[in-house]
Specification:
Layout (H helix, E strand, L loop, with lengths): L9 E4 L2 E7 L2 E8 L2 E11 L23 E6 L8 H12 L13 H9 L2
Antiparallel strand pairs: 1-2, 2-3, 3-4, 4-5
Length: 118
């Protein structure tokens, strides 16, 4: 997504930094005096056009559809701090046309998270 200056490419989340790290990828990092520290999490989603039914609703028959989350990960010592949710919110704000949403194929942890953060 071209950055037209209206959206920041990084944002602070408490003592962490959330940033766009490439096309369809958001990462979370620790922050330090020099700015961004080590990477502690990421969220990837499929880009491209969103496949829709004739009525306009999203057709997620395939897990590879524009906006579907491919993978989200947070290092174990940083989990349960809201980082995955912050990355999802940041991705949705950066790329609203993708209508970023959960996959149909979820781990047990991902199912619990997707119910709390639809």
């Amino acid at each position: 997504m071209p950055d037209d200056g209206s959206m920041p490419s990084a944002a602070s989340y408490g003592k962490y930094v959330i940033q766009e790290s490439g096309r369809n990828q958001i990462t979370a990092h620790t922050s330090n005096v020099d700015g961004i520290g080590k990477r502690i999490g990421y969220l990837n989603y499929f880009g491209g056009s969103i496949d829709r039914h004739p009525d306009g609703s999203i057709n997620d028959r395939s897990n590879i559809n524009g906006g579907v989350i491919h993978k989200a990960f947070v290092s174990s010592q940083f989990r349960r701090k809201g980082l995955a949710s912050a990355m999802l919110d940041f991705a949705r704000a950066r790329d609203p046309k993708q209508q970023i949403r959960h996959s149909r194929l979820l781990t047990d942890d991902a199912k619990a998270w997707s119910q709390e953060h639809p």
